[in-house]
Every structure is written in structure tokens, then in C-alpha cells.
Amino acid sequence: MGTMTDTETRLDTLLAAPAASGPSYAADGRLYFLCDAGGSAQVWELPAGGGAARPRSEHRDAVSFVAGSPADGSAVFGRDQAGDERIQFYHLPERGAPRALTADPKTIHAWGAFSPDGTRLACTANDRNPAHADPCVIDIATGAFTRLLEVEGPHELPGWYPGGSAVILSTAPRTFESNLIGVDLTGRSTDLTPHEGDRRHMNPRWRRDGQGFWLLCDQGSEFLGVAFQHSGGAPRFLFAPEADVEKLEVSPDQTRLAVVVNQDGYSRLHVLEAETGAVLDTPQHPAGVITKLTWHPDGTALAFDLACPTRPSTLWHYRPGEAAAELLFAASEPPAVLRDWQLISFPTFDGRNLPGFLALPEGTAPAGGWPVLVWVHGGPAMQALPNWRPDLQMVLSLGIAVLVPNVRGSTGYGRAYAALDDRELRLDSVRDLAAAHAWLSGQQQFDGQRIGIMGQSYGGWMVLAAVTEYPELWAAGVDYYGIARWKTFFERTGPWRVGHRAAEYGDPVRDMELLERLSPLHKTEEIRCPMLVAQGMTDPRVPPHESEQIVQALKRRNVPVEYLTFPDEGHGFLKRDNRRRVYLGVASFLAQHLRPDRG
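Request: output the structure for the sequence above.
Response:
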């Protein structure tokens, strides 16, 4: 299977393949997007009249988004400092260098939307109190900052009313509840989505006549569907498949809706008639994951990004009425032939079959079977998707198979499935990981004695829970910035996250007994397998104290542990050189403990 030098060469090839994502048209037809060809995601531009793509920003820290102006060829983008998530906004003119719109490094500015005339932007900001994200408006020409309303808790700002008379504020007190509030420029608010129970109302897009708006909603359903809601009325569903609709963009003339449906984790693009929801087009495009849609300002085309396990994100172009989308921009040629993922399911303790993805190394299984890495997503209200993962391709090149399960609590399979791990049921999702191990061990092509587990953030907690609840199962564990103890997590995580996280995990005061019982730090004497822990030192979500506690506990017990830290990364490793270091660390660790012939 080669040497670690071969692995380095392989990884460098994978990391050198840049991604293009997050497209957004400006009014003059130029397409802005993010590309990490220089080592971190930066703003790039495809000219309106054709020509080569070119970079428009140059920073070491990654740009988090770019939005093209509805009035001209300019844009606004945001970036933080070293992963601290305190986003600052910049105005990018049609030509020339960007200009700072905000300059408050202690404040999180969360992008919202341009006003219809392009002169202002709406956002949320937590400058008044770190725990509360207030709706604000910034004048692009002058930088004047206006707070519209003081609110409590986290909020998002997904849009404006027609004519720019008010903004739409979205509240999300819990994972499966979100409500829409209209806030006019004097601060007067109106509840746009009155309802009973926990329901989601997302992605609102006003009709120009002001009589109502399109949105994604799950009232009366397990899944998010496309609805239209007249002012003061209830949502009327237009398109409601037995799967979540995850993206919604209205064409410039408001006759068509572009939507993305999540089908077993794969994105499927549809174009609907805006009035009735009838499907007009279901264009062909590669199997993968779409994260952003954007209509050309003249409505003749739709651009979107698409990533898959065998290729980083590329940009695609679809003209309504045609049979298939076409590749618009790829930052590089596809890497050499890589290993694709396949949909699988496996049984668990209560008779359910759980969904997931499986990827196998090249060639035939060795005597005794492939070793396996089980990779667990974070969240928990998230879903593992068939995305571009150079680290997992690297693992496959080591001769280690990869299983990516979507255990109970994952989104994408309905509200009831996502609720199966709530509160006292939390460890049932860890039992699902033991079931995944049993399923792998029961197949001749896998070596049940050499199965490792890896996850990040909440997935890191899942790793720590797995190696403490089922210590006899795992040959190795990799924990990226996981939660070791819920009490210390709540004491140190960003104040803006406490309320929402408490709704998911349990109240840090009222439910402390439960949270302490669910804290792996109290069970480190159970851990038998070697561990690798990696942490960004500016992480505001899971601060370094969580990783430091688990590392210190393992060292006291003489359990083999490696600890990798990154002073200029936050909640994730975004810079190419840092990714190279952590991925090579994982490769060396897994080669030693899952492939002893490679150690």
C-alpha cells in the first residue's frame, strides 16, 4: 500500500485540487464565488461578458460568503480573524480593492441580504450583548449603522420586504423551530408565521406585489416543502416531496422557483412553476451536494455549485428548458481516479435500518479483511453528505475502508428520526455506532479487530462517548475539538450559542445531572484505545479547554494520545497548510494503529 512518503504525495495532490463554491450573480451579470486556489477561500469573479476567472480578494483567513449586488457589479463579502467567527463585512467595487464596512473585531456580523435597490444591507450583530443578535441595517455608501430592534437570542435575517420598507427576521430557538418576523425601519415588528408547536419557516422570498411570500415550511409534515403564504394567512403547500427541500430561489420575473431536494443526502435540482408548484424541469447533473443557487439577473440561467466524493466543488450552469446542466467553472482538472461512496444501510438495536455511506479502498480486501474508519458527523442535527473529503480519500489510499453513518438524530430523514436522540435518549445514537461496528464485523471483507472511529465537534463527543461506553470495540479514536464535559462546555462556549445548544443538549442548570452523566470526561478510565486529538485554539464554539481536559486525563492514565493544536484556526481547519498537517497526523496515527504493517 506504499509508504508515508507516498501518502504525503497523494495528500498534496488532493489538497492542491481547489474548490469553487457559493456563487452569486451581480446585477451586471458577473458571477462572484469563493475559490481556495490560493490556500484559503477567497472571492473570485467570472466576468459578465466572458473571459477568465480572476481573484478579487487576498487574505490568509478564509472568506465566509460573497453576495453580488442587485444594483450594479459590486459585491459584499465577509471574513473573520483566524477562525474566531467574528465576521466583518467588506464592500467590493466593480473595480479595485475592497473597503471595510464594519470594523468591530469583537462583534459577529451575520450576513442577511441587500435591500432591493442595493444601497443598504441588512444583517444581525451581537455588539450590544454577545448572546443576542439584533437586526441592523448598514448604508453601503456611508457605513452608517442602524439597529432596528433589540431582541433576545440568536437570529438570522434572510430578506427584505418589496420596496425596502422592512426586513424579515428569523428566530430559531430550537433546531426544529424557526419563525419569521417582519421588522420595519422604525423597529415595529409583526409575526409573519403564527402557529402552534415546533415548526420551521425558512427561506422567505416576498412576491413583488407585497401580497405574500414563498418559503420552506414543515407545518403538518415530517419534511420541509415549498409553500406560499399570503399576508396574514397560513402556508399553502405547492411542492411537498417525501424529503426535505433545502434550497429555494425565485427567478427575477417571479414565474419560476429553483429548489434543491435532499434525496438520501444527494442534492436534486428542480425548477417549479411559481404559482402552482408544478415541476417544469428536473435537469440532469452529477450526483453530489449543492450548497448555493443563484439566478442570472435576466432570468435566462441558473448557476449552482456541486461537490461530490471524487471531485471538489465546481460551478454549474443551467438554462431552463434544456435537458442538462453544463459545467461552468472548475478551478482545476479532476484529481486522479478516486474512490466513490455508495449508499448503504445497516441494522441497529431496535430493529431499524440506519442509512449511511460506504467507501472501499482500491483492489481486493487483504486476508483478514480491510480495516475500517467510522466517521461520525457533528451537529447532532446535521447529516453526513456525499461531499468532497480529501482526508477520507487519503484514508482510503492507506487501504482503510470508510463508513459514514447517519445515526438517529441526523437530519434529512424526517422530524421523527431527528428526535430519536433527544435528551435522555442521547446514548441511543452511540448504541447505533456499536451497531455499525457489529455490522462491519459480520462481513468477511472487513476486519472487526481493526475498526477506528473519528468525528469533529459534536461528532468528537460521539467519538469520546463511543470509546467510553463501548471501549472494547475500537482500535483507535480521532477526536477533532469534541466536547469532553458538558458543564465546562456551557461555561466557555460563545454566549450567543448557549440558548440554542441548551435546547438541543439539555439545560446546563436544570439538566446538569443528565449532562454530567453524558460527559465522557467522567469515564476516561474506560478508554483502552490510542487517541489523537486536534484543536483550533481560537475556537469559540468548543473552546480548547475541552480537548485539553481529555488529553490530560489520558496522559494521567498513560493511554497513548497525540495532541495537535493550531493557533490560527477556530471551529474547523480551513487553511491548506493546516489541513495538510492535521491530515498527515491522522494518516500516520491510523497507519500505526489500524495498519500495523504500515506503522
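The chain has four domains: 19-104, 107-240, 242-334, 342-593.
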